[in-house]
Design goal:
By secondary structure, this protein is of the alpha/beta class. The chain has 2 domains: 2-173 and 369-381, Rossmann fold; 176-368, 3-Layer(aba) Sandwich (Rossmann fold), CATH 3.40.50.2000. The protein has helices at residues 12-21, 43-51, 68-85, 99-105, 121-124, 132-140, 149-158, 176-186, 189-196, 217-224, 229-232, 248-262, 275-284, 299-306, 320-325, 338-346, 350-357, 360-368, 370-381, and strands at 2-6, 28-33, 55-58, 91-95, 113-117, 143-146, 167-169, 203-207, 235-240, 266-269, 287-290, 310-314, 330-332. The strands form 2 sheets. It has a 7-stranded parallel β-sheet with strand order 3-2-1-4-5-6-7. The longest helix has 18 residues, at 68-85. The chain starts with a strand and ends in a 5-residue tail after the last helix.
């Protein structure tokens, strides 16, 4: 089989997808990495791509141009020229349905089967779904794949269930559980804290996972300031902000200033991390807070659950999978309730915390385990019924 993937060459999600969904080295895989994708793959991903002879076609040729609109237009035109010159593929898999990637897909030969793979925010926060370009690609798509029910339901509502017959709800494959187990066995909490410079005598609480305004950092920080001083002194808040929307660096610095003003103990993760380094954050963490506007079972959040962290989350996120699988977590109906929920969790004994989260690891593993997911992709998406 010949697969063309339009996506971010450096993304860990894409590497995990290729390795676990399309593992046969007899397949021919080409990654067309479009405008805005500048991150290099991890060492492991780069080595794997080389072993499997994965072809990489970059489109982002105009990184030196400061005008974002002009850079976007030039990169898109470059992508169109490149995609029209490519040889024939059986499938084109679009990872994350940005406008730029949908435009490139318009120029694929009619014989190519298009598979749209949603990530969450590309549906939940996308105001362009009703545009003509999206409609053309959705009409033509062979399959549209969602990785959680909330995204699927939102898409059906916005498109009046027009594409329900070509829609599939299948989780992303994940190697992270096995890698996390390796990290847990080789990295103690103390070692992980020392690596990042976290204090050893405080409870580590991670907050969000991106440098985007959708995370509502400012509101969260204001709420955390309501914690009693004797409690604040025992907690260290960690804000993972290694990536975000265009221009996120300025936003990240504004949050840093806000945190300094708040007086709470904090760290901001602002440098690119190798995957195993990122997983070490979970080893160090005891509690994870997410009050993002929308989410689609983010990998960061499920990895926190897998390592035993207590999750405090906004109930507007509609994690249907939590109720369906009895995942233990602490919902709040408003950001104003976060400090109260955090006080409650911090007051629990070690035995109570372990009992509360004891089943989450097995549940997450069963939910995101590779074997079942791989088979579903093979038979339900690619139509291999042999």
């Amino acid at each position: 089989m010949k697969y063309l993937i339009i996506g971010n060459y450096g993304a860990q999600h894409l590497y995990s997808y290729i390795k676990n969904v399309i593992p046969d080295n007899k397949n021919e895989i080409t990654i067309l990495s479009n405008a805005g994708d500048y991150d290099p793959p991890t060492v492991a991903a780069g080595e794997y791509y080389k072993e499997q002879n994965v072809i990489y076609i970059p489109v982002n040729r105009y990184a030196e141009i400061r005008n974002k609109t002009l850079r976007y237009i030039l990169n898109t035109i470059t992508g169109i020229f490149k995609i029209r010159r490519l040889k024939k593929y059986e499938y084109c898999i679009i990872h994350y349905l940005s406008m730029g990637r949908m435009i490139l897909a318009l120029f694929l030969p009619k014989s190519v089967k298009i598979i749209c793979v949603t990530y969450g925010s590309d549906i939940l926060r996308n105001k362009q779904l009703s545009s003509k370009i999206y409609k053309i690609i959705f009409d033509r798509a062979y399959k549209i794949v969602f990785n959680n029910r909330n995204v699927e339901y939102t898409f059906e509502e916005q498109t009046n269930s027009k594409y329900i017959n070509k829609s599939k709800l299948i989780m992303f494959p994940s190697e992270s559980m096995n890698i996390i187990d390796h990290v847990i066995n080789s990295t103690s909490r103390e070692k992980a804290c020392r690596f990042f410079g976290f204090p050893l005598d405080k409870v580590i609480v991670t907050c969000g996972h991106t440098a985007t305004k959708a995370e509502r950092h400012e509101e969260l920080i204001e709420n955390l300031r309501l914690l009693p001083k004797n409690i604040v002194s025992k907690v260290h808040f960690v804000f993972p902000m290694t990536y975000g929307d265009i221009g996120f660096e300025e936003y990240r610095e504004s949050i840093r200033r806000k945190l300094v003003e708040s007086g709470i103990s904090f760290s901001i993760l602002d440098k690119y991390l190798q995957y195993e380094e990122l997983l070490s954050v979970h080893v160090a963490s005891s509690i994870h807070i997410t009050v993002i506007e929308t989410d689609a079972l983010s990998a960061f959040m499920t990895e926190e659950l897998y390592t035993g962290s207590v999750l405090i989350y906004g109930n507007w996120l509609k994690y249907y999978e939590f109720d369906e699988n009895d995942i233990a977590a602490v919902p709040v109906s408003s950001i104003n309730d976060v400090h109260g929920a955090l006080l409650k969790v911090l007051s629990m004994s070690s035995a109570e915390l372990n009992n509360f989260t004891s089943n989450n690891k097995e549940i997450i593993y069963n939910l995101l385990g590779n074997d079942n997911i791989r088979k579903r992709w093979e038979y339900e998406v690619f139509g291999n019924n042999k």
